[in-house]
Amino acid sequence: VVTLSLLMYPVLRSLALQLHSAITGSYVAGTHSIAFINCLNEQIAKDIARAIMDKKLAACVNILPKSLALYFWKGELEETTEILLLVKTRTSKIGELSNYVRSIHPFEIPEIISLPIDQGNPLYLKWIEESVPRD
User: Fold this and answer.
1) Which end of the chain is more exposed for a tag (fewer CB within 10 A), N or C?
2) Is the dihedral of CA 8, 29, 58, 80 positive or negative?
3) Which stretches are annotated as coiled coil (predicted)?
4) Could you give all domains of the chain from N- to C-terminal order, each with its CATH number?
């Protein structure tokens, strides 16, 4: 019984938080995330952003202008310009988003990282919720 309780704790906690959120209308921190994806140029960024939106993996994708990137690749210091995508989505979609982007991205190892959204405009967070279908 103790082992089963420990194994079920994350699921039960998640359900309790969702129920509390539904009853009180409060936001549960971490329900949504922002993913960062780097791209070689603006056309690739637009193509990936549109593909993400077509798959309904995000409520919104911002395409940020060129930035300078310095990084080590295969032992050498590289310096390039990149375009950054900011992807707003459900945290539960991050795995699917990451897998999909890796399948279409031209980089051998694309940057796909995410951070949970702790707080924000409740109406905006509700809009993300409504825009991205549940699993």
Assistant:
1) N
2) negative
3) none
4) 1-28 (no CATH), 31-131 (3.30.70.120)
